Amino acid sequence: MDSYDPATLSKDEAYEFASNERRRSLIRTLIADGAQPLSRVVDEVVPDAYEESFEDSCVDARRNVRIALGHTDIPRLDAGGVVDYDYADEVVAPDDRIEELEPLV
After folding, report:
1. What gap in Å lies between CA 2 and CA 77, rounded to an integer?
2. Does domain 11-104 have CATH number 1.10.10?
3. Helix, strand, or coil here: 30?
4. Start and end of every DUF7344 domain (predicted)?
5. What is the pLDDT of residue 9?
6. Residue 93: helix, strand or coil by DSSP?
7. 94, 100 Cβ separation under 8 angstroms
């Protein structure tokens, strides 16, 4: 992937933002569907984050993904201008730099 050339993100930033499956799934969801409530984003991310069957622990999987997204992934992507998170309404929206990550997700 040496030919990847983001317009405003450094390569280090871009690779860090796309460094785990939760973030890649979140980015794919927002690129495809636009702004989403956090609960819907969690529904989209859980199957990608848990490759094995998560039927028996679906509540735990949802809780773990929601916590990771809310406390780590979304704030990091929000600070980087990749997503915009409305904390009051719990809505995640694509921001200006999200399209630069599309080749990585």
Report:
1. 23
2. yes
3. helix
4. 18-92
5. 81
6. strand
7. no
Structure-token match 């719990």, residue found: 90
Q: For the sheet with 91-94, list strands across it.
A: 36-37, 91-94, 83-86
Question: Smallest Cα–Cα separation from 97: which of 1, 9, 3?
Answer: 9
- Residue range 73-96: average pLDDT? 96
Are the C-beta atoms of residues 77 and 23 closer than 8 Å to each other? yes
pLDDT digits (tens, 9 = 90+) for 27-80: 999 999 999 999 999 999 998 887 655 555 577 888 999 999 999 999 999 999
Domain boundaries, the chain: 11-104
How many Å is the maximal CA-CA distance in the chain?
43
Backbone angles phi, psi at 79, to 5 degrees: -65, -30
